[in-house]
Design brief:
Elements lengths: L4 E6 L2 E3 L1 H6 L4 H4 E3 L9 H22 L4 E2 L4 E2 L2 E7 L6 H16 L5 E6 H7 L4 H8 L5 E7 L2 E4 L13 E11 L8 E10 L2 H17 L1 H7 L3 E2 L10 E2 L1 H20 L3 E2 L5 E3 H7 L1 H4 L5 E5 L2 E5 L4 H8 L11 E10 L15 E11 L4 H19 L2 E7 L9 H18 L3 E4 L9 E7 L5 E10 L2 H4 L4 E2 L5 E2 L2 E6 L4 H12 L12 E5 L5 H13 L4 E3 L6 H10 L4 E5 L1 H6 L1 E6 L4 E6 H13 L4
Parallel strand pairs: 14-18, 20-21, 27-28, 27-29
Antiparallel strand pairs: 1-2, 1-3, 4-6, 5-6, 6-11, 7-8, 8-9, 10-11, 12-13, 15-17, 16-17, 18-19, 19-26, 20-22, 22-23, 23-26, 24-25, 29-30, 30-31
Helix pairs in contact: 3-4, 8-16, 13-14
Amino acid sequence: MSGEVIGIKKAGVLYDVQSAQELGYLRGEEIIEGERISFGESPEALEILRHSCAHLLAQAIKQLYPDAQFFVGPVVEEGFYYDFKTSVKISEEDLERIEARMLEIAKRKHTITKIHMNRQEALKRFEGDPLKHAVMSKIEGDHFSVYTQGEFEDLCRGPHLPHTAFLRYFKLTKLAGAYLGGDASQEMLQRIYGIAFATKESLKDYLFQIEEAKKRDHRKLGQELGLFRFDEEVGAGLPIWLPNGMRLRQRIENLLSAALFKYGYEPVRGPEILKSSLWKISGHYDNYKENMYFTTIDETEYGIKPMNCVGHIKVYQHALHSYRDLPLRFYEYGVVHRHEQSGVLHGLLRVREFTQDDAHIFCRFSQIKDEVRAILEFTKKVMSAFGFSYEMELSTKPDKYIGSDLVWEEATKALQEALEEQGVFFKIDEGGGAFYGPKIDIKITDALKRKWQCGTVQVDMNLPERFDLNYTNEQGVSERPVMIHRAILGSFERFIAVLTEHYGGNYPFFIAPVQVALVPVSEDQAPYAKTIQAQLSTAGIFTEFVDKNETLGKRIRTLEKQRVPLIVVVGAKEVEQQSLAIRDRLQGKQYELDAKEFIKMCQKNMEEVSF
């Protein structure tokens, strides 16, 4: 193919010729000839690559299942997918066969071509295809484009790669069901997900991550470590916390509470159900009703709270306030309920009942920067203690917003300056703010380099207006406070899921649900081991006494599977010498210590961690 124009390259990204021309790229300066061409893995490059791979998937499905009809095949965060229907129910075992056909097609080096047409021409071209007509019904205007490769064609805006030969490194990852257009009242389609990269190494790294993620899946580890469970008789998305899980939660809660006290926060609590009239004032009734649960008491409708802000507003309203009172910082580990669709529920990551580490700060406009700076400082300490790296995203004024442009500008400036002064890496999401104010989202990166949205800081100029909140300024004139919504972890459920997968269940000592397991070799050593257990418990260390009627080796292996940081074996020699034989999981070694020294070491490990 040397000498034949097969595409155009711009900033390391390959485009089909027509799309590149439409985007204004100069063909004469950007011509790609021949087949041996490298291109990068920037977000833009990967999007085009994966979009092209989605069409390759659809072409393979059409060849293997000739009656297949296709809806949409977009690029998503986890790769790409295609929604389609066919008379054959495709299984996981079929994915390998589809992959093989995709490779065959790619090797045929089909040129990928873009064709323009009007609505009437597009409707005629896909006559008898109700899914394509459904797609076209959602598109405004009279301009359509179709991409062809070999015998396959589909509606698409593009851009795509120049031809299929560039599609070498891909993997189909999973099957799912999907309602047509995401509407539960419509028919169910089949969906196949996939991933694609520009290099073999990137694909290999990704597949390794996937396998590692399976081993670290918090749902699997939650069962193995006795943290939580779900029960169909209780209901979907409603976790049941077991003793080890609650130990973990309470340790995190207690560390946070001690730190919040130092940062000047006051604990409060709002009821879990409030009259619907309050949700109407807040705007949740009109804008969030489908995500809420409601009940009727004494012929009055109540809403179960999906968030804690209204309760905290009622706390603020219980007394009159002056400028001397501000800022007021309220926090609550508030249990909330949200009506999530069953299809999106996923272990602790997506549930219908969860607990937020929620706080709301009522302050003057001039105090926003200092308050946000303190939140960012607090965030840094929390993430450092848990071993997370993180980044922030500043979301600015959207198209639809309330308040004056000047107020938005000053609020956004305060957030940006606070971020800059803390030296935190952040991106700007232009227009991504809430309608009531700018916000900062906290995204943590785990051991597998996955990013998780957890905490948030939101400046709210809407709810103080809706609830007519006031304070008296220095001149005795009433002014409106600003409300800052703040969550560092997001929710305990989600954070513990991420934490569990980050550590693979090997929690650091300070939060491990069982920190020390005491294993007497025989009944003769049990009294001494129990004495040590009592001293550790008094020092606030979570312990387990293991004297089951099993061999010593089996008991130790069981504890190792449960990822206990310190396993203490007590034999006759240890009793005689008042010492302990320690298996230290975190350091990967064994050693002996005097009993008193061991207890001091455990206490020191706990004291070294604080927010």
